[in-house]
Fold:
Amino acid sequence: MEKANIESSKHGHVMTGGSGTQSYAKNSSFQRDVADATKLLIQNAVSEQLNPRNFPGLETFYVADLGCSVGPNTFIAVQNIIDAVKLKYQSSNDKIPEFQVLFNDHTQNDFNTLFKSLPLNREYYASGVPGSFHSNLFPRASLHFVHTSYSLQWLSCVPKEVITKNKGRIYHFGAGEEVTKAYARQHATDFANFLQARAHEIVPGGLMVIVLPSRPNGVSHSRVSFNILNGIFSSTFVDLAKKGMIDEEKVDTFNLPIYPTSPQELEATIKQNGCFSIEKIESLPKITTADVPHVVSLGTRAITEGLIKEHFGEEILDVLFEHFTNKLVESLKDVESGLAVNLFLLLKRKDEDNTTV
Structure:
């Protein structure tokens, strides 16, 4: 059972596909608000940091959105990038290139729904690239702009030592220091692999925007809204196990592969990689969309349903999320009182000698 739990995470986790009432496409308004909040930041990033002279004679500008899911949020982010790049080329009197957008997610992602919902008036060519972004996905020096939002908090796998040391929980919230450190180490390893792959793929002078839930430097995990919410979610499983509705052993071997890192942790890994300069790192304004219990519950279901179904079976889902919704009615104020931090990180690829372009 332990082995199956670890290996299933390695296969990659995707959001609930389709366009039904419980799909990610219909229950990701919070992530959409995050995408909207980055629009001006992306425009400023391109205006200040992207230099068309670094790409002489460029015919096609390549944009990759990593962890794209099924839309529509990925289309909002991509359009923000393209609008900013077009404006930059116009202002510098350079010929505007064509745009190729590469939508990436795990192989199990619902790419059919993604491509069925592509904007009809889009100004770019579109293609899908299945696979884990923790490894190489594209040819060397082929990308000019990489974007990823609300994806890098996901780990490539649950740390092995967590399986036997996190009984009665499905998350590191409220666990001992050893469990939390195991999550932190796994995130650092995954982020290092992510950066190594992007260093191979992004052209010198190319940009990368990373948006993810974060924890302020020096702040305890117990004070972060993201962790408090997952702590309530964890207690939902424990409640059902106490009632005999799900197997306690299955709860003990189920762990969410998520870790909200801090800016300090991110910066340490970026500096160790050495191929990128940090051009901007700042917190987004607080997003207040997710303040209704059933909306939060539906959003959580759209994100985690695949993992839960694989481990517990489909029959648990309705009861589990009904109970979670009821707990949120009583406890959502605890989530709202925590620190809600969404981090915007802008990196620029250095040249082959790792000198800032």
